[in-house]
Each structure stands twice: as C-alpha cells, then as structure tokens.
Design goal:
The complex is a heterotrimer of chains A (830), B (315) and C (134).
Chain A (H helix, E strand, L loop, with lengths): L2 H13 L14 H30 L9 H36 L7 H20 L17 H5 L2 H30 L12 H33 L12 H35 L6 H14 L15 H13 L1 H17 L6 H23 L2 H7 L3 H31 L5 H27 L16 H26 L42 H4 L3 H6 L14 E5 L6 E6 L6 H17 L3 H22 L8 E3 L5 E3 L8 H30 L14 H25 L3 H28 L8 H32 L9 H30 L1
Antiparallel strand pairs in A: 1-2, 3-4
Helix pairs in contact in A: 2-3, 2-4, 2-16, 3-4, 3-6, 3-8, 3-14, 4-6, 4-19, 6-7, 6-19, 6-21, 7-8, 7-9, 7-21, 8-11, 8-14, 9-11, 12-14, 12-15, 14-15, 15-16, 19-20, 21-24, 21-25, 22-23, 22-25, 23-24, 24-25
Chain B lengths: L1 H10 L15 H33 L7 H28 L13 E8 L2 E7 L5 E5 L2 E4 L4 E7 L4 E4 L7 E3 L5 E5 L5 E7 L11 E7 L1 H12 L7 H5 L29 E2 L4 E2 L2 H9 L1 H4 L13 H12 L3
Parallel strand pairs in B: 1-5, 4-10
Antiparallel strand pairs in B: 1-2, 2-3, 5-8, 6-7, 6-9, 9-10, 11-12
Chain C lengths: L1 H13 L4 H4 L1 H24 L6 H29 L15 H27 L10
Classes of the chains: A mainly alpha (830), B alpha+beta (315), C mainly alpha (134).
Chain lengths: 830, 315, 134
C-alpha cells in the first residue's frame, strides 16, 4: 500500500473512531445506535413476553385467581402496548438504522444525530410506559384505549399510555425522515432506483406510510389528552362528543401500522431468500409493485376494526372489499419468494428455516385475515379469541419469525461471529411448535364463544382444555425464545471471527471486512447490478485498495455521498454529525416534558421544555448547514463535488418536506375531527353557540399569509444579495405571525366559546391551539434565520436555513389559511 | 381446522356450548356458521397447496426452470388466483350483510341498555308500553326480534353467539340488531367489548321458548310482585332496585320484580342459589370488582338471610 | 458544476415514467375509495338509516367507471411506453442503463394499474346487493 493510502486509512479511522469510556454513550454512528436500538427493542419484547406468560397462567384453568381482574387488565393492556409500540415498530427502525447504510454503500445515514435522538426518546418513553406496572399505574383499558372507558374511568395509566406513546411516535417519525432521505439520496453511485436492494424499497415505502399513519394518532392523542387534562369533551356524549371519533383516528393509524410492522420484516426475507437460493430474486419489480400496492391499500382498511360499531352496511362493504384486495399484493410477494426458491438451489441454513416457519405461520394469519375481513363473519369473530389467534399468526409469522431470521442472518454482519447452528435449530422448533400449540386452538376457543380480554371463565363453557393447551404451548414458545436470546448474548470470545461475506451473499452490506471498521467501507464503489458482490469480481479489490470514491477524510470531517434520486449520480459530499451529547440531552428534556406533565408537575415540565429547546437550537446552530471551509471536494477520480447545497437538492430540505408532510397529516386529522362532528350532529355548529365569527379568522388568515409572504420574500432577497432587506422581511414576518396568532385567538375569545361546554367549541379551540403552536414554531425559525444571518452563518450563497424555513412556511401558510376558512367560513354554510 | 375441531368436540363432550358460534340456534348464526366452515375449508386447502409448493421448491428435485416460468408462476399464483378467489368470497360474504328497513317490522322489540356490568332489558308491548327486566333474555322461537341497543357509560357489545353476530352499545348512539332464533333452548349472551374490571362478569342467559311458552313467560313477567318486604326498603335496597308493585323508585340497579325466576345473580356471575345470594349481598365487590352495588356485610346476618329469602321468593 | 447537476436532475425526472407516474393509479384508487366511503357515510348519516341507496348506487357506479377510465388511460400510456406484456422480463436485460430503469418503472406502474383496477372493482361489489342504509 502506498503512503497516501496508509494516510487515508488513518484519517478515516481517526475521523470515524468510536468514542471510548463513558463517552461511548455520546456516539451517534448508525452501527452503534442501531445495536442499542435492537437490544432495547428485544429487551422490551422479553418484558412483554413475560406479561404474556402471566396472561396464559391466569387462563390455564377456569376460575383461576392468580391475578386480580384489575391486575390482569393492566397486564394485557401493557402486553399489547409494549409489543406493538416498543417492539414491533421500533425493531424496524432499529434494524434499518443498522444495516441500511452499508447496504446502500453509504458511510452513515444523512442525520445520525437524529437517529440517536430517536433512540433516546424511545428508551426513555419505553422505560416510562413499561415501569408503570410496577407501581400499579399501568394503562388498563386495552391497547387501543377506547373512550369513554379510558377517558372517564381510567386512572393515571391512561395518561402514561398517551404521553409515553406520543413521545415514542416522535421517535418513529424521526426514523422515517432519516430512512426515507437515506434511501432516496444516499445510495452508492450507479445504484439506480431499479438496482436498489429490495430492503431499501421496503424501507422507503414504510417510511412514507409512517408519515401518513402516525400523525392521525398524534392528533387523536392531542384530543384525548385535552379531554383528560382540560375537560374538553371530544369523546363525551353528554356534551356533543363521540367516542367513535377516537376509533377512527386510532385505526387510521392502527391498520397501516400492521403493514408498517409487516413490510420491513418481509423485506428481510427478500434479502435472505436470494442469498440461500444463491440466485437473484425472481420478480424484483413484482415485489416492488406489491409493496407499493400494499402501502396504498393498507390505508383503506381501518374500519374493519369497527365492523360491529353499527356503521351502515355500505361502509362495511367498502372496507371489506379493500381488506380483501390487500391480500393480492401480499400474495404476490409470497409467490415471488417461492419462485426464487424454485429457480435456485437452496442451501439449508438456520435463517432459511426461520423464513419457512415465517411463511407457514404467516399464511395462516393471512388466510384468517381474509376471513375476518368479510364483515358478516367478523360479526361473530370480532373481539373473540379468533381475533387473538389471527393477530398473533400475522404478527409472529409476519414479523417475529422474519426478524429472527434476520437476526440469524445479520448477526455475523453486526458482530463478526455466527450464532450456533444447533441452538438455532432447537429454538426454531421449540418456537414453531410452541407457537402453533398455543395459538391454533384459539381459533376454536373463539368460535366456541370466548371473548378476548376476560380474566377468567367458567368451567362449564367448554374452553378449559383448549386454554390449558394454549398455556402449555405458550411456555414452550417462550422456552424457544430464551434459547435464541441465550445464543445471542452468550460470550463468544473464544469463537473466531467469520470470514468476509460469510453467506456468500450478493448485496453490498456484506462487502465490509470482519470485524467491521467504524467507517464502514474503505471507499465507496460504483454499482452496476443488483447483486454487485456476485456480478462484479473487481468490486472488493477496488473497494479495499481505496480506488472508489471518498476514500479519505482529509479534513477530519465525517462525510458520505449524496446522489440523485433515480439514477444515483453523485451530487454532493455531505458532512454528517460526529458524536455529541446533544441528542441525548434533547431527548431527556423532551422526556421530562412528557413525563412530568403526566403527573401535572408544571415547573419540571417547563424546565424539560427549556432544556429540549436549548439543546435542539444548539444542535442546529453548531451542526446543521455549517458553511464549509471550501466550495468543493475531490471525491476521488477527479470528481469535484460541492460540500454545501441548499434547497430542493439538499437532504435538509427533504427532511423538512417529509416532516411537514407528516405534520400536515396530523393537522388534516383534526380537520377531519371537525367535519366528523358535523356528520354526527343534526345541528352543527350547535344552536345557541355562535363563534368564532368570520372576521377574526379572516384577519388572522391575512396576517398568516403576510408572514408566509415575508418569509418567502426574505429567501428571495437573501438570494439576491440584499441581506438587510431580507432581515427586514424576516422581522416583518415575525410581527405578522404574532398578529395572526393573536387574531386567531381573538375569534373564539370575543365570541365567548368555552371549550369545556361542547365538542364544537372544543374542536375549534383545538385547531386554534394547533395553529398558534405552529406559528410559534414558525416564529422561532424566522428568528433563527435572522440570527444566523446576523452572525454570518447564513449568507446569500449559503442559504439552506432560509430555504428550509420558507418550506416550513408553505405548509404553515396553508394550514393557517385552511383553519381560518373552516372555523370562520364553514358555520356560514352549515 | 376440521380435525382439531372434531377432536376437541370429543374432548369436550360434557359441555353444553351455550355460547358457541359453532352450535347455531338462530338464522344468522346458521348462515354465518355455513360461511365459517366454507372459509375454513378453503383456507386449509389454500394453505396446504401453498406450503406444499414451498416445501417442494425447497426439497424437491431441481428441474431446470426458466425465469419466464417464475414470471408466470407469480402472475398465476399471486395475481390471477387470489383475484378470482377473493371476488367469489366477497360476493358470497357480503350477501350476508344486514339489508333491511324499518318498514319490515320485527315480531318483537327489546330495548337493551348496557350498564357496567349488567343488562337492562325492556320488552316493548304492542301498545308501546314496556316491561322491564334485567340480566335474562327470553325470546319466542322463529320470531325476528329487534334489539335497540344503547349504553349509559362506556362501550359494550351485545353478543349471543348461538343466535348471530354481535353489535356494540355505544354511549350517545342507538344501534339496531335483528336476530331470529330457530331452535328453542337455553343459550348464553355476553358482553364482547372490554368495558372495565368486571367485563368478564357481564353475561346473560338467553331462553328461547316456543310461542306458548314465551306468552306465558311474558304474562308472568308483566305482573307485579305479589309480596312486599319491610326490610328490603329499610335496608336501602329500594333506593336502587325496583320491585314492581312494591317499591318503584329505585332505577339505578337491575329490576328485581321476578328475581326468584332468574337462573343467575349479578348478570350471570353466580348461579341463583340462596347460598350464593347471601355471599353476594355481603360483598358483591369481592365477587364482581367494580360493581356499583355496595356490600351489606354491616347488616345483621339474619336480615340478610331474610332479604335473600324474600328475593328468592319473587317468582 | 451546478448547471450540469440540474441537467441531470431534469433528465431523470423529465422523461417517460418517474416515481410520481408510478403511483398515479393507486392514487386514483385511493380517491375513488375515499369518495365512495365519505359519500356513503355522509349520505347515510344525513338521510337516515332507512334511506334508499338507489341514488348513491348510481353515483358510486359512475365514480367507479370514471376511476376505471382514468386507470385505463394510465395503462394505455404505460403500455405504449413499454410496448410489452404484463410479465416482468426483467432477466433478459442488463440492469444498469436508464432504459432499464424506465422499463422497470413502467412494469411496476403497469401492474399497479391492474391491481388498482381490481381494487376499484372490489369496492363496487357491495353496491350489487345493498338497497338501504342499514
């Protein structure tokens, strides 16, 4: 190796070195955070699994009194909540953060600090929610928390559920932003969209789904907490509320969520199956289209959780139809995997065994899903053990087994060692057998009339034997999982490192040496096929000799390549964040805000908010859109790439766009709430409640448009080198935003709308509060730009900040305008 | 699914299956159990074929197959087959959706109000007046009954598996459900939507009579109670419970006019025996957590016994 | 440098089938579905549960025809771009050319058209039976 190359390697090692000692916890690199994330998600899974065993013990024999009804209710609520929110969804984010950059040929994700922030949010929120049961304060109204039981009769557990989960939803959206931008903009050069590993496609689709699925729940959570905290009657029928609104908002989230869980897991199969069939996947484009189709159709299913609420048959029919249609793309994916196996020569291995087990279980869940999607059958099956069986077949076959296949498969990638083949086979058969013994009988138990969520049952009901069998199966299942867990954590010091690309896989993540260096690949290769390790024999030498792109870290900065969306042409060298405590501090601040507000401790709540705000501002000020010391950098091979881009070509702009798309969805969910109340009430607005009138809302809209216009003007003026005028525009925008907020509040105040009296003033106020909070955020951003400009961190050439803020204001202006039109204009029409 | 079902049925031969969707005694339940078996059979066949093909693909001898084959395999198995199969299922399944109007009058209307954790039943008579009872439903065979479903507190769900599908009772809404029993006998209904600590103890016996049996039951139920009790009023029972002809002010709890005729206590929580009733009066919370009824352990034991005897005598 | 990048971006998105083009047909499905559901739900909420579905049936079938026509137009366009069958054929080509990318995206878009059309038709099935808002 030449001296140059030795020096380059040293630079890379220095720049990407993992912090040591206690500073280890300040790391933000995807390979570290991904491991934390996975370990934490599995820890929560073990906890929720233990809760499941309590459930099964209680139900083992009739008229059992191992736990009281109150405890049982907390146990099953927490079991569902933790499995769904603290394992099934986060494990997707966790695995993706760990493996995606290597798979795409990136050194890291575009916003490593955001990943770290998401992780800390997840950890703090998860511990908060889980630990509540040790104080007897766990949520106890079921994991979907139907009001009025949850709003009017639950103790603090409901708040724990609500605030803890809202906090974790923040982490999910952070991950979605990170992963979408990662897949679209951080692929290795030449990795055209049709060469992207299928895992990347799935991550992209699931990320987009999160943006449209989680926000309705966040909106629902907001309404829920406003009712619990301030007595705004969104779900209280005595004051014009309606509990069904919650069910809509919850399930608009809840059904896509099933696919948000399922698709990334099946994506792991799409990586594993070709490796062990030793051939490219058959029907690549079939899989992409069915993943896309599933993503869309999954949003047309939510009412199938509400088939027995008395909705008109016509609504049930539409949702039955869509629920059946979604089975088609799911089937396509399964058939593509089988076709791949048919065409290849299967290597028998533990990951493949788990894949087959996943298929056998998931197909049962899919078929019962097709059954319960037929509304009349669901009239019988709904809320019984048929559903318990169905959902476990779907989630364990569609998520747990694939994820375990993934762990078996990627363990050498992450750890450099393999898991034991014997233990793997043992754990598989114990789990597969135990699972079916536990859950297959439940189909029958349910049809014999056993409702879900009963803490005991009579000996004469005919369910005793079935339940005992289920309990035995559950323990065998648990034993199998413990074997797996032991295999993962048992000391492996004596065990030698595996050879590079141990499975002889074709995708890029296996190109890394073992053990994997912290900087990932020695240099970034140019890709020309879907399975570069199979098709390009020169790839590894090119990589290792540093003949690829970005082979150095001369400036001591962490860098990764940004490429174009479709054909992955290099367009920028992106500097990504180095280790820092700021994400953790910000998460602690936000966690304090949510946790203390649960207990109505307002001073600590406010302190948490301040810590969060300061940490985030400092993080952005020092780490985002930093002006580089030179215009361009030689990425290797004479390719000069800019170090700073702004606007639509920058990753930051996309992050803002994606975040605001999610935010807009939440806002539209509130608007949906407004019109929902209109449909359920013959008179809406209710007779005798006038307000907020149309004048103040229109004044507010005018000022909001003014603030919007001023921000856009500031962007243009700044770009035109008229910096003082740009600053003036920003000040004008700030003033206009304040006036807009004040006018918006003036409407309901001057007309005496009291949000506690009826759902109508409550929803109007909810919209007003939403917009005012967003105006405040928008003002913060305007102020930030002003400060950046004054301190010389934002200039006409380096203007990413104002471009991103202007983008925020596009959404802000639209939301404010729509709110004014709805609350001011709709009462005139209705 | 069929084999385990048969096997389990043998194992469970002693049980009555009063709450089973697989032992239908009503028109809807009959149709739905037909749909159930149809779908289960189809599911077993599909599962066996797909897994058979998968296992064959993994273990079977390799023949040279072209990629064109894979393409057609996906097109046929993943697109064509499910599209046709699911369309057939939808056309069959959705034909069972409720599709009636009030113009088709039911033979009987029962107002059902769910409360934590019991059922208030009011039979609507032809003249529009109502006969109120609780926690035990009696229906005439072969007559379509319409249930008017409401709730005062949280969401419950009204489910008699042997007669047909369930329907939620939601505060602020009125849902209608029609069921037609086709076989006389005793069944069991239950709350299917989780409603709090004693969700488990919110059931009710359902007795389907022939026409004469129903008429005589209704006539007896309509009649006021024949005897009164000083103690019932003095101990505070009457504050919540109505016994028609004796104490008619208490509206909070279940009507007890013909309590002695019912087969259960506390919404099918306990069998209606004197011993159970004594235990219930002393401490209902222990038996049914979260129940609204206070315990009367403070009453002298003799008083409780007297009240129990009185209630048991309300035939 | 910047000019060159912009050219490239234009070249990628301006021709044939891009990512947006791919999701046209599922968006048509989504709009059709939401329209049917919202229209049916609001109609039944405001007209009462005994209301006849005669009017909505006509409107929903009309909407279904419109949706199918839109999907059909998209299919036709894609068919022309691709000029090929419904199968993948992806194995016959080198993958790292822009032409292949177009072919890939067209196939995805084409099959999504088929899937969306099936889903749209499914949604119309309930209208075969239902006559009232019950």
């Amino acid at each position: 190796m030449s001296d140059d190359k030795v020096e380059e390697l040293a630079q890379l090692e220095r720049t990407w070195a993992r912090p040591t000692g206690w500073r280890y916890w300040s790391d933000v690199n995807n390979s570290t955070v991904g491991l934390w994330y996975i370990a934490t998600a599995f820890a929560f899974m073990l906890f929720a699994g233990a809760l499941a065993l309590i459930i099964r013990l209680q139900l083992a024999v009739p008229e059992n009194n191992l736990v009281s009804a109150e405890t049982y209710n907390q146990v099953f609520t927490l079991h569902g909540t933790v499995m769904m929110f603290l394992f099934a969804v986060p494990i997707f984010e966790a695995v993706a953060i760990l493996i995606l950059p290597a798979m795409l040929g990136a050194r890291d994700l575009p916003f490593p600090r955001l990943s770290a922030f998401g992780f800390w949010c997840f950890l703090i929120g998860g511990v908060f929610v889980s630990s509540s049961i040790f104080f007897g304060q766990a949520p106890d109204a079921g994991w979907f928390m139907y009001p009025p039981l949850s709003t009017e009769q639950s103790g603090i557990g409901a708040d724990v559920w609500l605030l803890g989960l809202t906090f974790i939803e923040v982490a999910s959206i952070a991950a979605a932003v990170e992963l979408i931008v990662g897949v679209l903009k951080c692929r290795a050069p030449g990795m055209h969209i049709n060469l992207t590993p299928l895992y990347g496609w799935y991550v992209l689709i699931v990320g987009a789904m999160i943006l449209f699925a989680f926000p309705p729940l966040i909106a629902g959570d907001l309404l829920f907490e406003l009712e619990r905290l301030l007595d705004w009657p969104f779900f209280d029928v005595t004051r014009g509320g309606d509990p069904i609104l919650w069910q809509h908002l919850f399930w608009i989230f809840g059904h896509p969520e099933v696919y948000i869980i399922f698709l990334p897991a099946i994506a792991l199969l799409a990586m594993i199956v070709p490796t062990f069939a030793q051939r490219p996947i058959a029907g690549y484009s079939w899989i992409v289209l069915s993943a896309l189709g599933t993503g869309f159709l999954s949003f047309g299913l939510w009412v199938h959780h509400m088939f027995t609420t008395g909705l008109p048959s016509i609504s049930l029919g539409f949702f039955s139809a869509a629920s059946e249609a979604v089975a088609i793309p799911t089937g396509i994916q399964i058939f593509a995997f089988i076709a791949t196996v048919m065409l290849g020569t299967v290597i028998r291995s533990v990951p493949m065994l788990y894949c087959l087990g996943a298929l056998a279980i998931f197909i049962v869940g899919g078929l019962t899903g097709v059954m319960v999607a037929v509304a009349p059958f669901d009239f019988q099956a709904h809320d019984t053990y048929v559903i318990v069986a169905h959902l476990h077949y779907v989630l364990i076959g569609g998520m747990l087994f694939p994820v375990m296949a993934g762990v078996q498969y990627y363990y050498p990638f992450a750890m450099g060692k393999t898991l034991s083949r014997n233990l793997g086979i043992w754990s598989f058969w114990l789990m597969f057998f135990g699972f079916n013994v536990a859950f297959l009988p439940m189909h029958l138990t349910g049809l014999l009339g056993m409702p879900r969520r009963v803490f005991t049952y009579g000996a004469d009901m005919g369910w005793s034997w079935l339940n005992l069998v289920s309990t035995i199966g559950a323990f065998v299942f648990a034993a199998g999982f413990l074997v797996f867990a032991w295999d993962c954590v048992r000391p492996k010091r004596q065990q030698p490192y595996v050879k590079r690309n141990v499975w002889n896989a074709g995708t890029l993540e296996w190109a890394s040496p073992v053990p994997a260096p912290s900087y990932g690949m020695r240099s970034v290769p140019t890709i020309g096929s879907r399975y570069p390790l199979w098709d390009d024999k020169d790839l590894l030498p090119t990589l290792d000799e540093g003949r690829g792109l970005l082979a150095d870290a001369r400036e001591g900065k962490r860098e990764t390549l940004v490429t174009s969306v479709l054909d992955a042409r290099p367009i920028q060298v992106l500097r990504v964040g180095a280790p820092t405590w700021l994400p953790m501090i910000a998460a602690v601040g936000l966690g304090a805000l949510f946790i203390f507000s649960t207990y109505k401790l307002w001073w600590p709540t406010a302190a948490g908010g301040v810590v969060f705000l300061v940490a985030v501002l400092r993080w952005l000020w020092t780490g985002a859109a930093v002006i580089p010391e030179k215009e361009t950098k030689d990425a290797g091979g004479g390719l000069e790439l800019p170090l700073y881009v702004s606007g639509v070509r920058s990753t930051g702009w996309w992050a803002m766009f994606i975040t605001m798309t999610g935010d807009l969805t939440a806002f539209l969910s509130l608007i949906f709430g407004y019109f929902f109340f209109w449909t359920v009430h013959p008179e809406f607005p209710p007779i005798g409640i006038d307000g907020p009138g149309w004048v103040w809302p229109m004044v507010s809209a005018a000022f909001a448009l003014g603030a919007w216009g001023a921000t856009v003007a500031a962007r243009e003026l700044n770009a035109a080198d008229r910096v003082p005028l740009a600053r003036l525009a920003l000040v004008g925008g700030l003033v206009s935003a304040v006036l807009s907020g004040a006018a918006l509040v003036a409407g309901p105040v001057t007309t005496g709308l009291d949000p506690t009296t009826n759902s109508y003033p409550a929803i109007v106020w909810a919209l007003v509060v939403w917009i005012v909070l967003h105006l405040a955020t928008g003002m913060l951003m305007q102020g930030y730009c002003l400060a950046r400009s004054i301190y010389g961190k934002m200039t006409p050439r380096y203007d990413a900040d104002i471009r991103n803020v202007a983008l925020y204001w596009h959404f802000m202006g639209f939301s404010a305008l729509l709110t004014s039109l709805v609350i001011g204009g709709f009462p005139l029409l209705a | 699914m069929v084999l385990p079902a048969v096997g389990a049925s043998l194992l469970l031969a002693g049980c009555t299956f009063e709450q089973s969707a697989l032992h239908p005694a009503g028109r809807d339940a009959q149709e739905l159990s037909g749909l159930t078996w149809f779908m289960f059979a189809g599911a077993v066949v599909v599962w066996a074929i797909v897994m058979g093909v998968t296992v064959y693909a993994v273990l079977g001898r390799k023949r040279r197959r072209t990629e064109r084959f894979a393409d057609l395999f996906i097109l046929g198995g993943g697109v064509a087959f499910p599209t046709v199969g699911l369309a057939i299922l939808l056309v069959y399944g959705l034909s069972l959706l409720p599709n009636w109007t009030s113009a088709q009058a039911p033979g009987l209307r029962v107002h059902v109000q769910a409360e934590q954790y019991w059922w208030r039943f009011a039979y609507e008579l032809p003249d529009g007046s109502r006969v109120e009872t609780a926690n035990e439903l009696h229906l005439p065979n072969d007559v379509t009954a319409e249930f008017v479903l409401t709730s005062t507190d949280v969401i419950h769900s009204f489910w008699i598996p042997a007669l047909g599908g369930k329907m939620d009772l939601i505060p602020g809404r009125t849902n209608l459900l029609r069921l037609t029993p086709t076989k006389a006998g005793t069944y069991r209904g239950v709350c299917a939507e989780f409603c709090g600590p004693s969700h488990t103890f919110m059931a009710f016996p359902v007795v389907v009579h022939d026409a004469d049996g129903y008429a005589s039951w209704l006539a007896a139920e309509q009649a006021p109670a024949t005897s009164g009790s000083e103690l019932f009023a003095a101990s505070g029972c009457a504050a919540c419970h109505t016994i028609r002809g004796v104490a008619e002010t208490g509206k909070v709890g279940p009507d007890l006019t013909h309590f002695g005729r019912r087969s259960t206590i506390g919404a099918a929580t306990l069998v209606n025996t004197r011993e159970n009733l004594l235990a219930w009066l002393a401490d209902p919370q222990r038996i049914k957590p979260g129940a609204a009824m206070p315990g009367f352990a403070s009453l002298p034991e003799t008083d409780r016994a007297a009240i129990a005897d009185y209630l048991m005598g309300l035939k | 440098m910047t000019g060159q990048i912009e050219q490239e971006v234009k070249r990628e998105t301006g021709t044939g089938t891009d990512l947006w083009r791919v999701i046209v047909s599922p968006i048509v499905w989504a709009v059709h579905f939401l329209f049917c559901y919202v229209y049916g739900a609001v109609y039944c909420a405001k007209a009462g549960r005994d209301a006849s579905l005669a009017g909505p049936t006509v409107i929903i079938i009309g909407a279904t025809v419109v949706a199918l026509v839109l999907i059909g137009l998209s299919t036709l366009h894609l068919w022309k771009v691709r000029g090929r069958s419904l199968t993948d054929d992806d194995f016959e080509y080198e993958h790292n050319t822009p032409e292949e990318r177009h072919r890939f995206l067209s196939h995805v878009a084409l099959m999504l058209c088929v899937l969306s059309a099936v889903a749209v038709l499914y949604v119309a099935i309930p209208m075969l039976y239902l006559t009232s808002c019950r």
